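Supplementary Methods, section 5.1.

A reviewer requested that the exact input to the structure prediction be made available. We therefore reproduce it here, unchanged from the version used in the analyses.
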Amino acid sequence: MTAPASFVVPEGYTLHKENTSAILLPASNDAFLNPVQEFNRDLSVACIRTWGETMNAEKERKWRQSLERRAKKAEGQHKAKKAKTADVADASSSVTEQPAESAAPAEGPSEHAAAPSQTQPEFRPQPFVILEALSATGLRSIRYANEIPLVKHVIANDLSPAAVEAMRRNIELNDLHEKTEASAEGSEKPSIRPAKVRVNEGDACALMYNHRMERNRVDVVDLDPYGTAAPFIDAAVQCVNDGGLLCVTCTDMSVLATTNYPEKCFSNYGGAPVKAEYCHEAALRLVLHTLATSAARYGRYIYPLLSLSIDFYVRLFVRVHTSPIDVKRVFSKTAVYYVCSGCQFYYEQPLGRVVENTTEKNGKVNVNVHFKVQTGPGVSERCPECNSAMHVAGPMWSGALHDKDFVSGVLSHVESNEDKYGTAARMKGMLTVAKEELDTPFYFTPSKVSSHFHCVCPSLDETASAILHAGHKISRSHACAGSLKTTASYADIHDIFRSWVKTHPVRMDKVPENSPTRVLLSKEAKIEANFKRHPESITPSSKVKLVRYQQNPTPNWGPGAKPSGKRKRDEDE
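The structure derived from this sequence is encoded token-by-token as follows.
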């Protein structure tokens, strides 16, 4: 519900409208709002709605299974009673030698009365509670309350008194506050309408720790701080319900996606960053690793639904479950990477592995699962491709970044509700690429590999075709325009480029004597690459016009500045 048409904007404020909601922004900038983050908010609304539908579908399935079990149990009890009644009647007839024609009907409930009820109650979708730990202006919480039908209420928190004041003002503007309504006929007391958005002023971690007991956990937790979400993750993974959704934003890409501050990355995320063109995907994997290890301490594990590198931040949507056996599997979904400082070749060194032993006894199959440490490393200090130094990165998450079924569900929702999202075009583009994305780690761009060879760059279509002709799979990556993900190794990609160089010679007089390029070119290609167009070289997302990557929304756009004031405040996004 937006502000009424007759609403007059108070002096010293500006009215900001976004989709179904409107908020008042003070000129003093006491509570921060970045309009560029509308895409983040749109995406969050769509993902939470899709998760809510998925969660209720799971609950309905379990509910129906429970009804079936109870019906079968009641039917079994009914048949047992019927058989017992018949036995008693037969025994009585045998003792009295009464003819069957004159036998009195057996006492007890009739078959019609004893049969289990054929009518079943209707399943009612269960509403859920969202906790936004760092709310600032409250715009995100207000949009959640307005646009997600199954929301019971939203807890909007901030440490800043100025931000809390702004939240209360904006919540009242959108008519989501607690309200006394006129009493119904015959009632003496007026009814109280509970607030759809409930404001809390305090420390975000303290609030989440107060919700960590199972009886008062929340269903969705949204962490969207200014900078890193690392200080809030331990509390967040404890206070979300089993099967609940955790939404995390980290905007400290200067820490996550560069090697400028490796010590800071280690202190925040427990791993070393990557210096390579695929650093933005590595940033996602570092944050997922932090979420996974934080949850594992409490017997919980994460299941990534959607993990995106967007503009100047990463945004992740993961489900949190409680399962001791799946916590153990986190060990095998963690890896250290050795990354070449020259050609960006990488070697994956998993920390753990899973060994499954299957035995059969008396027609029953048993699977025994064992968790082992991994052997390694399988690479020396020098790159096997260009002889440059290898640097360590990680540990980080090595499993899948997205759940394809979930991404398809979000995409279907957006396509059927395009008029409800201001950034629908870009949402469709990015979700389509994410849905097609291979689960293999890291991407590359033909232009970057060409720079390592000092050669003319083949087109994206020619590179993709050569990889497909060699028997490998390809996809695009959402994290970088003009990028490819593939099941081929870097050695295979280098072989393809060596074949390209044969028909597009490199001017060796322009290559320094000690350059890694000379080492790359000194090796003979093991295959003869075929650069003719492969029918599958154009991915489905490339066949339609989609806004897959960010376009400059405003001049000098970016993460924005912190809100003014002595106290450090959390931004809305």
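The first helix runs from residue 38 to 96. These observations are discussed further in the main text.
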